[in-house]
């Protein structure tokens, strides 16, 4: 439970301790165990990274060298030339897709995190009738597969002529029941009642208290909610597939999927699919690296009850 | 529905017990509570509850035509669509397919995730930061992109491992399901590993010290101390994996352009999609409702089952 507090006092001590204790402790483990553990980790590192390595190598090759050279090592390095071609193809529609994905995922996750944080905070910090009912309904929402909603959403949106618009993908993405769940357990563990009470005595309104004081204590949970919602929207496929017809509204996943299914008719698309796939991974990796410190703390809050 | 909440939150009773401190009969801060809950509540109602209700409503309608080319009208048809669902062989085959998929893939994936998390948490492995990151990187690859990438890796002529793929056709009718299972495993092992690993980090070290003083080795500590303590995290990952398995769509949909063995009814969601493109929205809605119910029941039963086991 100690990791639920934002300062996570347990973890730093644990870290220091294990490094101090490492030398004597490691000696006690048999060399056989250590070697086999490292072999397991090494083999699976290859399993996880070789496909991405192959993608990088393949994306860096010109078309003529794609089949004729070692698929796992570079030939003439024409990655940037290939990227240039991709960007120029069909008036830079790929760039538009990346931008769309950034808007759907960035905007959706940001707004979604704020409203999920507010709702979770209210469920944790206020007593009101219907509180448990709301929480249970939201929790039930966690178990409802999002894809089951895509079709009825399409039917509803087509009644009000909202299909094939930015909003048809953006609006449903805002809702994150898991975010409310995580925000609630985190808020009840890490925002002290005394603090809220003190802010009240100072004359701050409830909303102001939340946005200036409480939010700060909830940062690890909120970053985690943001990240996972970002990834969920960035990876979302069924909703855009069912909603969108207009190519210029596609997120990058749907765009690359569309290209990949036309490879047999238009062979040049294969090159663009591979380069596009490589580029589409990079934003997520960067975000994960930048926010590492936060989401690792937040994750433990979700799993520790 | 209330069950998942029980272990995670204050029971309603304890909330009531706290009240006397405030000792006020009326709800305080009513406006603020509304302001906090309404934005999410409204969107949740609009984009979760209404669609569920609408899907149920649509699934109860049938299309009636006056003559062969007459005007089509939707009329109430009771459970007609559900009878069609239960008579639909391909749909149940697809359910069977994803259940087989889940029965094999979920234990392998979570077993690997648990193994890696335990290894990262043990003194046996060096370079933990590197491994943690390397194993997690595939999670940054969207399912569609991962499927495209592996589609090339599997293909007999384009694969860098053509020595293997020329002899074993991973895209054949027999193997394609397991080829997809590999893609899903590749993407999600690292993610599940991190959830379990975070739970391991939260265990106070004193517990190990005690076990170690009693002479327990790493394996013994992992089995008797660590795994029981991180069971909630493992259950959480299992539930999300079960939900994910039944929802399988992006990967098989992509594989349709690599392998003719992936039919338009390969998974339940593909069935929903292809039925709605016919278009037969009423039947597709009934498929959706049955699938959502099946998912809900399966994950809920799993939760109940594991909770009972834990209680023992």
TrEMBL record, chain B:
Q: Looking at the keywords, is Glycosyltransferase present?
A: no
Q: Which UniProt keywords apply?
A: Cell membrane, Membrane, Transmembrane, Transmembrane helix, Transport
The way this protein sits in the membrane is described as: Multi-pass membrane protein
Looking up Pfam families in the UniProt record yields:
BPD_transp_1
InterPro entries, alphabetized: MetI-like, MetI-like_sf, UgpAE/MalFG_permease
Q: Which residues form the ABC transmembrane type-1 domain?
A: 95-302
Major location (coarse): membrane
Q: Where is this region: Disordered?
A: 1-24
The residue ranges crossing the membrane are 31-57, 98-121, 133-155, 175-203, 229-250, 283-303
Q: Where in the cell is it found?
A: Cell membrane
* Entry similarity comment: Belongs to the binding-protein-dependent transport system permease family.
Output this protein's name. Sugar ABC transporter permease
Query: Native species of this protein?
Result: Cryobacterium sinapicolor
